[in-house]
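Predict structure. Input: N-acetylmuramoyl-L-alanine amidase, 405 residues.
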Amino acid sequence: MALASANAVVVQSDSVNVRIGPGLSYANMGQVKKGDKLAILDEKNKWYQVRLSGDKIGWVASWLIDNTDVSSATNKVGIVKVPNTTVFKNADAGSNVLGTIEQSQKVTIMYQEQDWTQILYNGTAGWVKSSFIQGTQETSGSSNSSNTSDNDIKKVTVTQPNTKLRIEPDQNGRVVKTAKVGKQFDYLSKDGKWYKVRDSDGSVGYVASWVVTISGTKSAVKSAATNISEATIVIDPGHGGNDSGAESKKSTYEKNFTLAYAKAIKQELEKTGARVVLTRSGDDSKSLGERARLSSKIQADAFISLHFDSSAEDNAGSGVTTYYYNKDKDGSLADDLNSQLKNLSIGNRGTAQKDLYVLHYNSQPSVLIELGYINSKSDYKYINSANYKAEVAKDVANGLKEYFK
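Output follows.
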């Protein structure tokens, strides 16, 4: 059997999850392993639709595949020449029938051999007689630009029955209307794992990303591929704006250090492919409630609040502490981060339970890390150094890699 000119990519990670749809909210249907070769059939929202063994079709995240210039545009399109052409499960007229295709309908050709052609049919692989398919010069990606900007208006198409359009990006938000499978909305923007959309009658609301597909594609992002790359992580730089936090003997403020460290951690985490959201990216005032709610709003997989300790008297305290509130929800995150932070130049005080607002009122796994004492001469020497900041960023990333294994 010859591979029709479909693009193939090789899995570079130890393992990559295969999902039943193009998004993290779809259920897992299995995994592919390092070295596996996958034929790409389609692209949607930074996900590749791939053909697996046993003619199964699934979706993998493009950023977990070692390829920066892949496109489904190399898959050939064929036109059905015969009315009510039968689609078989296998390349055998005695195998189960998957359905029929109307004359003149276009199909994506995946594989071809002399008598049989394998096509993409209703999300799976099917076979039709080669004599019933006429080849074309068209490719399956020719109508979809792979350079579509995220800012362009796209369509979203409902894939689940009774999909709710809500007034807010929240599963408890008031329902504006209910949509059927196949209903299309104009895509306006994204809010966490929700899409803001507009209906043809002008009504605007939010639909969950896991019940729709989105038009438009984007080139793959090449990155280190680990399980962390499927995570959304909130980094919370403590204090900000009018709240300067603790002050060092050098008259430098905690709020400036927490932001600088948050940005360094974000940069390190983004190398893994993780999605990272900061509660503030400038010298902004943010309430504790806003910080905690953001974690819930975007259904973060982990929330890390950054602070620097201060003792009542100068030079009376030293060390790094990782706080959690709920042992069941937050304990393993605290333990995995702390196990890496033990390597820091500043001594480690371990993990501790503490009733802190951003942890107590946080629905997601969350910790607060005190990265040293800002009014300790010995700790401050490290806190104010680029090397220590880089150490912290690497250790937090490594701790999260362990956590998501």
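The longest helix spans residues 386-403.
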